[in-house]
Amino acid sequence: MKSVSGKAFCKIVERRGWQLKRTTGSHKIYAREGSITILSIPVHSNRDLPIGTLKSLLKDAGLTDRDLD
Q1: Are the C-beta atoms of residues 61 and 18 closer than 8 Å to each other?
Q2: What is the DSSP string of the chain?
Q3: How many Cβ atoms are within 10 Å of 41's Cβ, its own excluded?
Q4: Alpha-carbon distances of 69 from 19, 37, 41, 66, rounded to whole Å
Q5: How confident is residue 57, by pLDDT bands cut at 50, 70 and 90?
Q6: Separation CA 3–CA 51 (nearest Å)
Q7: Is the pTM higher than 0.85?
Q8: Is the pLDDT of residue 45 over 90?
């Protein structure tokens, strides 16, 4: 699985229709129209997301590891 920073992952989910609702500290909160799921993406400078966090966010967003390219 390709590693991605929080900032890069935010750009990916925005292209997939997620909208930034608010920023709380170093976490960006995204939601999508018609969905009850909320994504909380940690953005700590340009550090890569931990693999477990990335897998969980991908699952919640309905994305696969191919979408990271």
Answers
A1: yes
A2: ----BHHHHHHHHHHTT-EEEEEETTEEEEE-TT---EEEEE--TTPBPPHHHHHHHHHHHT--GGGG-
A3: 22
A4: 20, 23, 18, 6
A5: very high
A6: 7
A7: yes
A8: no
